Amino acid sequence: MKLTIIGCSGSFPGPHSSASCYLVTQEYQGRTWRIALDLGSGALGPLQKHIALEDLDAVCLSHLHPDHYMDLTGLHIAVKWRPGGWPVGRIPIYAPSGTDERIAAAHGVDPDPGMHGEFDFRTWTPEQPVTIGPFSITPLTVRHPIDEPYALRIEALDDQGQLKTLTYSGDTDSCRGLVQAAQGADVFLCEAAYQDGRDDAIEGIHLNGDRAGAAAAEADVGRLLLTHLPAWTDPHVVREHAAHRYGGNIAIAADGVTYQI
Fold first, then answer.
1. Closest by alpha carbon to 51, among 18, 85, 4, 12?
2. pLDDT tens for residues 57-74?
3. Less Cβ crowding at N or C end of the chain, within 10 Å?
4. Is this structure's pTM higher than 0.85?
């Protein structure tokens, strides 16, 4: 399983990265399977540096804030208006309930039919895994001020038959669901939008370095990859504070970098 950082800027696109989008790939049954975790503002452009859009097997959304799903509007255009027609079937969109209506409203189209001709909308059920090719993906409810915020636990067998796990936090503050989602993960892709010592009084929205490190330590993850840092958050401060809590390998996610899991 490979993880490629398409966009990792927190809350809005930054000068060096789009908003949240992460490409996960795995060889299986003679071909490469590709899923996108979130498709936030500005992410559709850099995604095309790595794959052809028709090769996307699914989009998996953590929640419905624009920096995590708004580029579905551009993907809809790419599918609907491609000269010669879209060469494959509808793209599965795994997401919170009501995503079809929300994205239709954002794009200014009638929700009936909305984007159903281009997308196959499928609603998450908390703690119920779904299978997409080699991937088993389980949504777990986390703590963020929107209906149905999820962390996503992605599992797949490697070439040696060993189970590998990637956990994506989505957006969240500290909570039991986050630790449950990350338990024993090989890589924990965890948001840390708030800067330690500056934003400590803000509760129930995002993690800082300290809280992300604490979750990684409690979940006993193999590697902590900090992401979703806005342009005004200092990555060196966040990483330093995460290291006070978690003694394993820590890195800051960077646009375009691929990690082997």
1. 4
2. 999 999 999 999 999 999
3. C
4. yes
